[in-house]
Structure formats: C-alpha cells, structure tokens
Amino acid sequence: MAGRRGGTERVLSKLKASIENENYYEAHQMYRTLYFRYLGQKKYGELETMLFDGAVLLFSHDEIASGTDLAKLYVDTLNQAEADPEEIHFLRISKLYQLMPCDNVDKPVYLTTCLKWSNKDTGSPVGHPRLHQHIAYGLWQNKQYPESRQHFLQSWDGAGCGHMLVEYHQARGFNSEVDMFIAQTVLQYLCLKKSLAAATAFVAYTEQHPKIKCGPPYPHPLLNFLWFLLLSIQTSQSLSAYTVLCEKYKQFLDRDPQYLEYLDKIGQHFFGVPAPVKPRPGGMFSGLFDQLLNAMNEDSSDDESAGPSVQSGPSGTVRPSQPKPTSKFQAEDLD
Q1: Is residue 161 within 8 Å of 152, Cβ to Cβ?
Q2: What is the dihedral of CA 138, 102, 78, 88, to 10 degrees?
Q3: How far apart are CA 162 and CA 296, in angstroms?
Q4: Residue 225 and residue 250: Cα distance in Å, rounded?
Q5: Burial profile 308-325: b = 16 or more Cβ within 10 angstroms, e = fewer
Q6: What mean pLDDT is reported for the chain?
Q7: Are 298 and 272 a contacting pair, CB within 8 Å?
Q8: pLDDT tens readout for residues 279-291
Q9: pLDDT of the residue at 288
Q10: 56: buried, middle or exposed (CB in 10 Å: 19+, 13-18, 0-12)?
Q11: Are 261 and 284 in contact (CB under 8 A)?
C-alpha cells in the first residue's frame, strides 16, 4: 500500500513539473496514468476534480485533443462511480462542453454521453432538464441561438428561453418575424406538455422585447392567438374555445405550415382532440378542423361548460367575455 501511495505521489510530482515546464503532452500522459490509478483505488471524488481541472487547464493552452480526452474521462468516471445527477456535475459538464470548439468531432459524442449519464433516476429519455438548462445558457453566451433554443425546450426554464429569444430576434431576425420567434417555441413547449414553461417564455418575451412591450391585447394577431391559447389551457381546456381560436386565426396560422402539426398535437394533449387515424387528402389543416368539429359534436355539452366564452372582436381577434385575462399566469412551481 505504501509503495502504491509513493508511486502515485511520484506521478503527481511529474505532473506538476510538466505543467510548470509547459510540457502539456507529458502532463496529459500523467493525467491518464493517475486516472487508472485513482479508478482502481475508487477515489472517485479526487479523480473527478483532477480530471475537470486538468481539462480546463489543457483547453486554456489550446491543447484541444488532450482537453477533450480528459473531459471524456470525467464522464466515464461519473459512470464508473454511479454518481447521481448533481449541480456540481452539471456545472462542470457544461463548462467543458463550452470550452470545446464547435468543429470538434468529439463534441456531440461528449454531449450525448453526458445526457445519457444524467438520465439516471429522472425517467427522462432525453437527459436531465437541469443539464439542458446549463448547456442552453452556455450556447447562448456563445451566440449559438438555435442550438440554445433546442436545449431550453428540454429544460423547464421558459423565462430564460424567452429572454434568449429577444436577443436572438434582435440580432438575426426580421421585424416581420417578431411574433414568429416566440410562436414556434410556445407551440413546441406545449407539444412537450410543458404549459408552464410555454407561458413563462411567452410572458418574458412579450414583456422584454422592445418592439412589443404592451398587451394583451398585442399589436400582432399571432401573439393574441398564443395568449388566448395559453389562457384556455390554464383555465378551462374548452374544446369549443380551442376550435373558435383556430378558426378565427387561421389566416395567421397559415404563415408557417408547421403550426398546424403543432396544433394537432396540442389539441390531443389538452383539449381531447382524437389522434388522426390516417393522413387526409385535404391537407393537415382540414384534417385538424374535421377532428375538432367531430369531437365537439360528440361532446356538445362542452359548449356550456365552465371557462371563458368566446366572441369575435374587431379585425378577426377573439376576446373572452369573462373573465378578463391578467398579465400573469398562476401555476405550481416545477422542480
């Protein structure tokens, strides 16, 4: 045992000397030697810290291949130790991912391995939401907005996503797309059954965007549609309200054919719309409205159920007669 300890101390001494002499190739070899020794001794905590610090050091000196290797060994250590998904690991993983260059072929493999590890005890097939949140912020910091948005969707941080989208639109969007930037995200959140994240993303975006900053009602019909959709999901989940909303705003929903696919899924999740048996020749929208009308006919009593009644307003907008919508959503906090 004493001999093994002495051997480890000699390697640590060589590692320190290699770093001081800026011999990073040799330092990388010392890190790998220590990895196998600590792994055999099951010194997982010390090993995790050493690998993380070593990877950061190597990345800082543009030793990309060596830094990436230590980052991969860090995740291997988490798997070997059967480590639980914890904040310290999420922070380290996202930091190392951010340090890897975009053209690094190992970068997506590293992320996939990390997300797979984070699945432990979460029941999530796509990785821990908190890890996705950290990755999203790192990508946002690097101005990788589309990639950041994808990870925000797998998290519960709707507010952060809304703020990111404001910056994204101002940096790369057209003025005519100010409503579409948030519409896609809200609808995709709802397809994932994340109604609270969808609502907080919508509120953050509309309150922070300098070209909106008013409402409801909003100057853009598509934003009004999203507002009434979220309100209907929160208060009543009325099929009749959903049907009227889709009918009244059809011309604005036609701007992006994907909206129709999202609305089909949202109708199934929240409003009892039956899943389509087979594709319809009349197109997605006609099939969607057929399902809506059929569901309404089968359950006509929903027309008189609790929830806001809906009437047409000027310019094809839809307004609930009561209650008056407020500017904040109320829902239980999610972990």
Answers
A1: yes
A2: -20
A3: 34
A4: 10
A5: bebeeeeeebbbbeeeeb
A6: 85
A7: no
A8: 555 444 445 555 5
A9: 59
A10: middle
A11: yes
> Which tens digits make up the pLDDT trace of 90-130?
999 999 999 999 999 999 999 999 999 999 876 678 999 99
Tokens of 14: 């060589």
Prediction pTM value: 0.81
Q: What 8-state DSSP symbol labels residue 276?
A: P
Percentage of the chain beyond pLDDT 70 is: 80
Angle, to 10 degrees, between the axis of helix 239-248 and the axis of helix 221-235?
180
Q: How far apart are CA 36 and CA 317, in angstroms?
A: 66
Task: For residue 53, count other CB atoms closer than 10 A to its CB.
Answer: 13
Residue 235's Cβ-count burial label (10 Å; 0-12, 13-18, 19+) is: middle
User: For 207-221, b where at least 16 C-beta lie within 10 A, e where not — what string?
Assistant: bebeebeeebbbebb
For residue 46, what are its two tokens?
């010390």
State CA 279 to chain mean position distance: 30
